[in-house]
Design brief:
Layout (H helix, E strand, L loop, with lengths): L3 E2 L2 E2 L15 E4 L6 E4 L9 H14 L1 E4 L6 H9 L12 E2 L2 E9 L24 E8 L7 E5 H6 L3 H7 L3 E5 L1 H4 L16 E5 L1 E3 L6 E3 L6 E4 L4 H15 L5 E4 L5 E6 L3 E5 L8 E8 L7
Parallel strand pairs: 4-5
Antiparallel strand pairs: 1-2, 3-4, 5-16, 6-7, 7-18, 8-16, 8-18, 9-15, 9-17, 10-11, 10-14, 12-13
Bound molecules: succinic acid.
Length: about 290
Amino acid sequence: MSLRGDGGPRYRNLRNDDAPYERIVVDRLTPVIGAEISGVDLAGPLPEETMEEIRRALAENLVVFFRDQRMSPAQHLAFGRRFGELHVHPAAPHVAGMPELMVIRADASSTRANGEGWHTDVSCDEEPPMGSILHIRECPPHGGDTLFASMYAAWESLSDRMKSYLAGMRAVHDGEHVYRGLYSNLGVADKPSYPRAEHPVVRVHPVTGRKALYVNAGFTTRLLGVPRDESDAVLAYLFRHAENPLFQCRFRWRADSVAFWDNRCAQHRAMWDYWPHVRQGHRVTVKGERPVG
Ligand code: SIN
C-alpha cells in the first residue's frame, strides 16, 4: 500500500539526529528504522560512555544489530542488566537455573516458532518490557530473518482525523489466547492465568517524547469505549496499516548476531521459513514502565 498524498509522500522522515558517535560506528539500514552497530564487544566490560552511545543509537533507530558477538549466557544477562532490571517471561521456556534467559529455538520437531506474527513483546503486562536482546547462536542455511516496524512512523502517517479519533482511547492487551497451551509440546505446564492489561492506543515514548501507535495483532483484542464491531474493524485497519513495508527493516541473521529492539516504539515478526532446519539462541528482556498516553 502506497502512502502517497496529493503533495507527495504522506510519511516524511524528518529526523535530524546525525550528530557523530565517538565510541561506536552506527550504520543505518533504512531512514526509518534499524541500524547496525560495530566497534563494540558486548561480552566485555563496556564503559559508561559506550553504553550511553548504544542507548542513543537505540533511541534513534528503534532496533540495533551487532555482529560476531561471542557472548556467554552470563555475559548476555550482564549486558541486559546495564539497561535495567530483567523481565521473566510469563510462559516461555528458559535455560535451567536462569529464569531471565528465554530459549528461542525451532527445529524439525517444532510445531511452532517464536514471534511468527507481528507483535510487541508481552504487551499484556501492566508494565510491558522496554526492550529485548536476542542473541542467535545457530542459524539455518537460509531464512529465519526478523522484520521490525516503526510504530512512530505508523502513528505519524495516520490521517489527522484518525489520530483525533484514537487520541485518549485505550485498548485491552490479553495474554490468555496467546500463551495458553503454547509451549505444551516443550513440556511447559500452563499457568492458572496469564496477564491482561489496558494501555493507551497511542503512547508517548519516555525517552524520545515521540508518539507511537501501541496496538498489535498478537495481544490487542479490544478498543475500549466503542462497540465490538467498530473495535474489530478499526483494529483490523490499524494492524494492516502497521504492517506497511515503508515502516520496516528486515534483519538477516548470522550465527552470533544480536538484535536489541525497543518494544515501546517497534513491533517485530520472525519468519519461520526454514523448517526443518535449526535456528536457536537466547533472549534477555528488560523490564519497562506503564505506558503513558
Ligand atoms: C521474538 O519474538 O522474540 C522472536 C524473534 C525472533 O526469533 O527473531
